[in-house]
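ok trying again, last paste got cut off:
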Amino acid sequence: MTTIATTNIHDLLDFIDASPSPWHAVDTSAARLIKAGFKALNEQEAWQLETGSRYFVIRGGSSIIAFVIGQNALPTSGFNMVGAHTDSPGLRLKPHAAYTSDGLIRIGVEVYGGPILATFADRDLSMAGRVNVRTAVGFETRLIKFDKPVLRLPNLAIHMNREVNDKGLKFNKQTELPLLFGESADGIEADAQFLGKIAALLKVETKDIINFELNVFDTQKGVVWGANQEFIADSQLDNLASCHAALSALLEHQQPKHTAICALFDHEEVGSESTSGASGSFLTDVIERISLNLNKEEKLRALAKSFFISADMAHAFHPNHAGSYEPCHHALINKGPVIKTNANQRYATNADSAARFIQLCEQAGVPYQQYTHRTDLGCGSTIGPIVASRLGVASVDVGAPMWAMHSIRESAGVLDHAYMIAVLSAHYNHCSD
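nice, full thing came through this time. structure:
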C-alpha cells in the first residue's frame, strides 16, 4: 500500500468515528473546511462572494455545501460538482423513547432507511445526534454523543429460536427492536432517567431539554484488516466514505479555474424529500446565489457547461454469493471506482457522462469498473437522478466498491478510497474550455 493511500484511509476512519450522526458528519466537515480557510455563510444573510475565495453553508444542521469560486467565467466554464450523502440506514430513537418493562428501561426505535437489522444484534451500541435546549432567548441546538456503550439488542438464545441458522435472524420492528438501556430505578419514571443521562452529559437541567433527534451507532472503531492490510471495516462507509473523498478532493483544490462545488445531503436513504435533501432546493439555491451577477441566459449556459458526479458506494462482488450478481459486471475491491448504470434511470449515468468520467480516471491514472444490477433484482438509487433532473446538468453515478452495504459493519478497499479522491480531484481541476 502506498503512503498516500494509508494516510487517506486512516483519515477516513477518523472522519467516520467522529461522525456517528448526520449532524456530527456536517460538524466534522465544517471544522475541516474552516481549518482550510473556508468561510462560513448564513442563508439568512447577504453573501459577498469573491473570485478565488472558498465558502460553505449548512442547512438543517445535517447538510452542507462547500464551494470555491473559480477564476473562469461561469457561462463558459460551468460548475464542477460532486454530491454525496451524510445519512446512513439504521435506528432512530422515537420522541418518547424510554419506557419500563420488567424492571428494565427499554428504548423505542424506528427503522431509518433499509438497514440489515440482524447486524445490530449483540453489538456495543450507543446514541448520538442533536438536542434542543431552552435558553433565556429561546433554544439552542447541542450535539451529543455517548462514547461508551449504553444500548444493546441482545439476541434470543438458539434454544428458543432453533431455526435461526436455517431461516435467518428476523426482528419484528415494533416489538423486538426496542433496545435495552439499563435497570429502572424505583419511583423514577423511565423517561426521567433517560433524559437525566442526556442532561448530565450536556451539563444542563433535565427540564431544559425540549426535544432531540438521536440515532443509534456502533461504538467499535473502524479498522484496517486483511492479510496485507488491504481492506477496511467501519460503520457508515455508505456513504461517509464518499463524503470524505469529495471533501478531501475539494480541499486539494487550491487555485481553481472552474467553480467547484461539494454538496453533502441528508435524507438520501429515505428518498431525499426534505428541505435538506437532494430533492429540496438547497443546491439550486446555492447555485442561484453564486450566479447572482449573471442574466438568465448566462446561468443556463453555465449549467449546460457543468458536470455533476454523484458519489455513492457501489456493490462489490461477493464470491460466496456469486449468483446475486450480473455476469460480466463484477465490481472488485481495490480495482478502482465503479461506474453505475441502470436502463431505468435509477442511476444518472449515460454513455456520454460515463465517457467523461472514464477520461477523468485516465487523466488521474486511476482504474475504473462498470456495474449494473442483476436484472431480476430491484435496483437502489442515489441522489444522481434527482440532481440531474432538477438542474438539467450532465451527471454520472459512481462509487467505491464495498461489501455488506447497509450492515452496521461494512467493508471496502484501502486503494479504492485513494483512487476515488484522485479522480474527484481531477474532476475539480478539469477544464473543458
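cool. The chain has eleven helices and 20 strands. The chain has a mean pLDDT of 96.
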